[in-house]
Amino acid sequence: MKRSPLAVLLCIVFIDLIGFGMIIPILPLYAERFQANEWQIGFLLASFSLMQFIASPILGWLSDRYGRRPVLLCSLLGSGIGYLLMASASSLLLLFAARIIAGISGASVGTASAYIADITPPEDRSKRIGLIGAAFGVGFVLGPAIGGILSHFSIIAPFWFAALLSLINAITVVLVLPEPGRHIAREKRSLADIFQQAGSWRLAIITAVYFIAIAGFAMVTVIYPQVSNRRYALNQSQISYIFVMMGFIGAIIQGGGIGRLSKRFGDANLAVSGFALMTLSMLIMPLAHSVPLFLLFSATLAIGNSLSQPTLNALASKCASASMQGRVLGAVQSAGSLGRVFGPIIAGFLLAGDHPRPVFQYGNTPFLVGGIIIAMAFALAMSLRGSNGLADEVRNSQQKASGLR
Question: What is the spatial distance between Cα 86 and Cα 105, in angstroms, rounded to a whole number?
Answer without folding.
Answer: 14
